[in-house]
Design brief:
By secondary structure, the chain is an all-alpha fold. The protein has one domain. About 85% of the residues lie in helices and about 0% in strands. α2 packs parallel to α11 and α3 (about 55-65) runs parallel beside α11 (about 240-270). Belongs to the multi antimicrobial extrusion (MATE) (TC 2.A.66.1) family.
Length: about 425
């Protein structure tokens, strides 16, 4: 599991976390308004990614199930058809509505709208890269997506200072550097598909790909929407608090991506009928380790972004209560998704958020931003409990080891 998860972690860390962190580092010299703009902009990009996530997830799971048993060509072709449809449906409205969208989250919408113009307009490139990576992961290859992410990261490191300061493009330069880096990386990644000789076969209904990946997409989308709602709550305490929250989130994501790497590894192995061990135990232990590490590095890491790291440090301290149950929840989600029980994960996530959001409003009026952090811990704990609620308790290790034929014969779990 860890051997399979390690390249995924490097990929996620560099493609998702590091890019945003690098942008924040470079624009931090432009002031708190620039930091807030990038924070809101990257949060919106995560939301857009959540809308599309059903496609690469469905591609990965269906290719994993078919590899060596049925043609994978129909899955790949359907994935690209869905990519084209989602690219138009998400990117075009995002660009056209960039100004009212920016005005929802900041008192200075001009900077954020400028970031949206580039970042949301470049979403088709980002989506295409995830499809390519999803194909390779379905074949059990996590090293090529890792290589692609490293290439993109190196390019962002080089292009950010050039675009932001060298060409004096400011916040828009950060977005442009990211899109340019992703475009070059996509060109490199496409060579992997050219060499892949996918067996031909009958067409695959788009609905099958979407149904397979929809629970994961819904889970991610719900998290993105709640993340934006939390930004709105935190914004009521001032720009400095939004900037501190954004910095803390970016630092925490470096650890959280371990959980998502474990989830993808569990999903890939379960889809391919390979043993996945005990994702729950791995997630809980990893959550505790990540929490300890973040507490140790909180002050120096936050100090890299701002001269007043108090809000970010406080956020990271309180996240200890959130990270342990969250690690278990995310790792378990891979088995649920690949074995056809993704709806249980989505239902548990939504149940946690139903409690978390009202609690965030209530506690923040009493404890300030600390109340928001506490609501996150309560929400993740409730979601984990919901995901583990017995539909007739079979241990997670046993579920993960169950061969595909056995799972199919047994049918869906009661209560699905």
């Amino acid at each position: 599991m860890f051997r399979l998860a390690l390249p995924i972690y490097v990929e996620l860390l560099t493609a998702v976390v590091a890019v945003g962190v690098i942008d924040l580092l470079w624009v931090s010299g432009l002031g708190e308004a620039a930091i807030a703009a990038v924070t809101v902009g990257t949060t919106a990009e995560y939301l857009a990614y959540g809308l599309f996530l059903a496609v690469p997830t469905g591609v990965t799971v269906l290719i994993g199930r078919r590899d060596g048993h049925a043609p994978i060509g129909p899955v790949i072709r359907t994935g690209w058809v869905l990519w084209a449809a989602f690219s138009v449906a998400v990117a075009v409205p995002g660009v056209l509505l960039r100004e009212p969208l920016a005005a929802l989250f900041t008192d200075d919408p001009g900077l954020t709208a400028g970031f949206f113009l580039i970042s949301l307009g470049g979403l088709p490139v980002f989506f295409a890269q995830t499809v390519v990576d999803g194909i390779m992961k379905g074949l059990g290859n996590t090293k090529i997506p890792m290589r692609n992410a490293l290439i993109c990261n190196v390019l962002v490191v080089a292009l950010d200072p050039l675009f932001i300061y060298g060409l004096d493009l400011g916040v828009q330069g950060a977005a442009l550097a990211t899109v340019a880096a992703r475009l070059v990386t996509l060109g490199v990644a496409a060579t992997s598909l050219v060499r892949l000789r996918a067996a031909r076969g009958d067409g695959l209904p788009a609905g099958e790909v979407l149904r397979t990946g929809l629970p994961m997409s819904g889970d991610f989308l719900a998290r993105s929407l709640v993340g934006m709602a939390l930004v709105e709550i935190v914004a009521g305490f001032g720009t400095a608090e939004v900037a501190g929250y954004g910095i803390g989130q970016k630092i925490m994501l470096a650890g959280v991506m371990v959980f998502y790497a474990l989830r993808q590894a569990a999903m890939i192995r379960t889809a391919r009928s390979e043993p996945a061990g005990s994702p729950l135990k791995l997630g809980l232990v990893t959550g505790a380790v990540v929490a300890v590490v973040l507490n140790v590095v909180a002050v120096p890491a936050a100090g890299l972004f701002t001269g007043d790291p108090a809000v970010a440090v406080g956020f990271l301290r309180w996240m200890t209560l959130y990270l342990v149950p969250f690690g278990g929840l995310i790792a378990v989600g891979g088995v649920l998704q690949a074995s056809g029980r993704g709806s249980r994960l989505l239902a548990a996530t939504l149940a946690g958020f139903v409690v978390q959001l009202p609690l965030a409003f209530l506690l923040s009026s009493w404890l300030g931003v600390t109340g928001v952090w506490l609501s996150m811990a309560v929400g993740s704990s409730l979601s984990l409990a919901g995901a583990l609620a017995p539909p007739r308790g079979v241990p997670w290790s046993a579920r993960a080891r169950a061969p595909r034929s056995t799972r199919t014969a047994a049918g869906p779990p009661s209560g699905r």
